Amino acid sequence: MISIFRLLLLTGLCLAGGTVSDSFKECSQFFYMHTVPTGIRGDNLKRICQRYGDKLRYATLYDSSRRLALYSAYTFKKSDGQRRMDTPWMYEPQVADSENSSHNTEWYCPYTVVESQAVLEDYVDAVDYKRSPLNPDQHQVDNQDKAATYTLTNVVPQITDLLEGPWAIYIDTVRRRLNNFCHGAAYVVTGVTVSGVTIRRGREDRMAIPKHLWSTYCCPRFDRNSPYDVRYMFPTYAAYALNEIVGHSVTEVPLKALETFLKNQTGMDKSVNIFFKDCLTENTHTNSK
């Protein structure tokens, strides 16, 4: 018997959920110390509190002019890294109309949605690229948290060889690292830099292609007896990768090195700061009070 999820895929129905507003106030719990990253610019920015099953799951900063997610922020959940394969891709109606109250409803995508965000058809002829989730389901454990990552406002076009090679290895490396050595909440922000290059559909520029992907985590409470080869990567560490066919290896760096790198990229300014006070360890934060 065909599952309801596969039926929705075949019929082209959209499941929608999320809240779009001028701030992340409703979902600030997904940012370390409830503090949003600064210095990341864009046009017609949409701040999406991603919702699934009437529960907030993570946050996304979306540039609807470029039809590109600039970053997603989420809390890491210890997991076995398994993917959820039977979830249909979702769209976000409130990116097109912030007054739309649709949450987890089934409907056909109207023109306003197609104009405001990337849709599945945009990837059909983009043979070098695949959909890459900024909040990957491998970093979640609950089935609904995993399902919530399958929204097109959470994915970006990524070179296939990067997505299935070095980036996949990095995502799993971080998963195992946080599973083993992070003893409390871990906050992750994964985003992109912009290139000025787009994916076209017909004669229309449909979707911006990221120049780089980057990611960083903050784990204030960690195992201080961990081996040295991972100890220096706590409480925070980061990585970036060039999103091109040639030269797309992942480079892991300290948080400040990532921020310095981002400050020199298009769409960023000199105030780039991802975590409150650069992710204080729990002891540092306690002693500073």
UniProtKB/TrEMBL annotation:
Residue ranges of domain ENPP1-3/EXOG-like endonuclease/phosphodiesterase in the record: 55-273
GO molecular function, one term: hydrolase activity
Alphabetized Pfam families for the sequence: Endonuclease_NS
Keyword match Signal: yes
Keywords linked to the UniProt accession: Signal
Residue ranges of every copy of the DNA/RNA non-specific endonuclease/pyrophosphatase/phosphodiesterase domain listed in the record: 54-268
InterPro entries xref list: DNA/RNA_non-sp_Endonuclease_sf, Endo_G_ENPP1-like_dom, ENDOD1, ENPP1-3/EXOG-like_nuc-like, His-Me_finger_sf
Secretion signal span: 1-16
Protein name (record): Si:dkey-85k7.11
